[in-house]
Amino acid sequence: MFERPYTVVLLVPTGIGAAIGGYAGDALPVARAIASCCDRLITHPNVLNGAMLYWPLPNAFYVEGYALDQFAAGNWGLSPVHQNRVGLILDRAIEPELQLRQLQAADAARATLGLNLTEYIVTDAPLGVELRISRSGISWGTIANPDSLLRAAEKLITQARAEAIAVVARFPEDIENAAQDNYRQGKGIDPIAGAEAVISHLIVRTFEIPCAHAPALNSYPPEPHLSPRSAAEEIGYTFLPCVLVGLSRAPQFLSRGAEEQRGRGAEGQRGRGAEGQRGRGAEGQRGGEFKTLPSPQSPVPSPQYPTDIWANQVDAVVIPATACGGSAILSFSQLGVQIIAVAENQTQIQVPPEPLGMKVLRVNSYLEALGVLVAHKAGICPSALSPAISSIRSL
Questions:
Q1: Which of 191, 210, 310, 335 is most buried, by CB atoms within 10 Å?
Q2: What is the pLDDT of residues 160-211, one digit of tens each?
Q3: For 286-295, what is each residue's pLDDT tens digit?
Q4: Where, if anywhere, are coiled coils annotated (predicted)?
Q5: Secondary element (H or E) of residue 252
Q6: Using CA of residue 352, residue 354, residue 356, residue 358, what is the dihedral sign?
Q7: Residues 281, 162: Cα–Cα separation, whole Å
Q8: Residue 122: what are its φ and ψ, rounded to 5°?
Q9: Alpha helix locations (H) across the chain?
Q10: What is the phi/psi pair of residue 249, to 5°?
């Protein structure tokens, strides 16, 4: 009997101080465990990025946060790839020695891991990253020169035929001491995570291409009481390796209706020259060549290619129990997906599922969530695994 692949989405929103997943790739063990009991795991860079550390998960899909929102809403599908050509953008504000460290990391990824990188580009103006923390304890940020970032990305896409974009931006060193100290001790929030999301969202939204970000920071003095959850960011000069690894096989995005364009070779969706879908000049970048997406009420497409993934193929979503207000989880809740809310993964925000009318299965820990996923994949009601089971009732 044919069974469709069991597909799980693992969400740990960025910059909200999640007890697990709010630090340097510390949700990666959760992702590894879930990937072992499902056929396809869809998650985002915040979960899989561990600075100098990463782990190859052949059945995991590395999907940036904005793209995950579009996927959950049914606007975009995911198309697996064997390999992406990854373009690298460096912020002009990065000092020469720190820039050299990033380029050496890129060369190491090419020589040691065999990744396919294009030429790199330096932005024509400093990006001007600024960091903020809201009163509710959420990290966010701004960039002063977004157009410079977009121009650099466009050149890599049109001239270097980049299929995914890695960005290294210079982040300010004057991070609030208390916030940085708390983060290094495994408390509080990641003060730079929100600003990182702004950078990747901008490129993904504009060019519909995979993107992830690595900050450029000077090394901090050794901290004797460093938390293991933050330690991955302290062992090297750059955070770039995990980003390059993730983007190297990140799925490409399919807009609604794009299935009709499949199979056209150089002239089709994947033919990315100046004439291809991804080769957008200045007039395409602002919408002149973008496809118009139908309304969210339109049915989610069914894949014509068996490897393509759309939101209606997701079986389960795992989320911190206090972080249920995001766009992706709200969309998934409308699809009848099994949502598993993990109470142990506390965050700085308090948005539980019940006031939102969201039907979820609450569990205490990720260990318990793994048991639920195994039972769900096997077609077993979790209550059947309990010693006490009530009698069937009349409607």
A1: 210
A2: 999 999 999 998 876 655 566 666 666 666 666 667 788 999 999 999 999 9
A3: 333 333 333 3
A4: none
A5: strand 252-255
A6: positive
A7: 14
A8: -105, 135
A9: 28-35, 45-48, 65-72, 96-113, 146-158, 177-184, 193-207, 240-248, 282-285, 327-333, 366-377
A10: -130, 20
